[in-house]
Specification:
155 residues; mainly beta; five-stranded antiparallel sheet; four-stranded antiparallel sheet
Length: 155
């Protein structure tokens, strides 16, 4: 049976109430496709994901911009990883996010632990990741923007 998935993104943004100015966040889901060039070579390009099938690689992109007039501090951008997808890695050129297997405890994947079969604690794997989160370490100046992204595969 062939499964297909229509994707939507959810970006959760936390900016302290004391922050001066609004943060605009947009998100999109792209799918990796292979394109053959006239010389016979193949390259991978990103296209908007409308439908994906098992095995397709997708890239979740969160773009952010300070549309206010003052710098913003302590920004946290988070995105759940839909259950139908397996987290793979940060997207090329993106800062690695902290990941979570429970939506509460975040860190680098190598440091996470989860309960396995029979309740035994084991090292978390990419398959266990349920959400990703980035903390911007520097103030975001007025008018500036950035982009963060991660890769996943449809199960």
């Amino acid at each position: 049976m062939l499964r297909m998935l229509t994707l939507a993104t959810v970006a959760l943004v936390a900016v302290p109430a004391a922050a001066a100015g609004p943060l605009e966040v947009t998100s999109k889901v792209m799918v990796e496709t292979r394109q053959r060039a006239a010389d016979g070579s193949t390259r991978i390009v990103l296209e908007p994901a409308r439908r994906v099938v098992p095995g397709d690689r997708v890239v979740f992109v969160l773009a952010y911009r300070n549309v206010g007039t003052q710098p913003l501090n302590d920004i946290v951008l988070a995105n759940p990883v839909p259950a139908e997808l397996s987290y793979r890695a940060p997207a090329q050129g993106s800062v690695a996010p902290d990941v979570s297997a429970d939506g509460k405890t975040y860190g680098q994947l190598a440091a996470l632990r989860v309960a396995g079969a029979g309740g035994a604690i084991r090292a978390a794997t990419a398959e266990d990741v349920t959400s990703v989160r980035w903390r911007l370490t520097r103030p975001l100046a007025a008018g500036t923007s950035g982009q963060l992204a991660f890769q996943a595969t449809l199960r």
